[in-house]
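Attaching the record inline, Q. Sequence:
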Amino acid sequence: MTAALLDLTDTLAGDFDPAGFLHRVTRHCLDLLDVSDAGVMVLAANGPLCLVATTSESVRLVELFELDARQGPSHTAYQRTVTVEHSHTTDPSPWPGFTACIRGAGYRSVYAVPIRLRTQTIGALSLFRRVSGPLSDADRHLAQALADATAVVLLQQAALDEHRTRTTQLQHALDSRTVIEQAKGYLASHLSIAPDNAFQLLRAHARHHHLRIADLSRNILNGTTHLPTTNANADTSDSTGTGTTAAEDPPAPPPA
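Structure, as predicted:
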């Protein structure tokens, strides 16, 4: 059991594959528990429960039936955050269609465990047995431990992904601001205008040509775009109404 938990928690890397990870969860269930098959449903981003991993085609079809019917042990375990044990002999069955489905697939009972971390439930782990009788207490505890480890890994990975996204967005914003400031300085120097007027010139040209200011700034710095001096004269008048004198064309910036 310790080796399985270590294997599941050693997954926090940039190339993390959720589907591959959940398939490993189901394989550990077969190795550690007295069950015939296993499946994992997790909550999709801004969507419903989705079937991600199963150990056989039989259990895949049963789980898809449950998802389509929106009722059954896994659905209830997720919705109510409770462990659900269901037998094919339960009478009356709370889910007659599901009971008939597992009986037809050769399963005699299903044990569904919510995948949760504290108050956040993100899915359900389903364990299928082809023999009669409930899971042992030891297997119940192991099943809950596997479900809890699954929740920890998935939620930590989601937090890491969000952090990486925010870091990338921040770096992109900083890079854009840097190149805009460089273009402002270049225009202010070569057109003899104030930096604020240089920015107004950049913004006006970008709007007129439907360009991002950062992209325009890069083009100015690499010499592929030259702003018309008429715009510089029009947008850079001082407070007395006297236009700022500028050269006819700003010379190309030196090679980077």
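Residues 55 and 125 are 12 Å apart (CA to CA). Residues 137-191 form the longest helix (55 residues).

More tomorrow.
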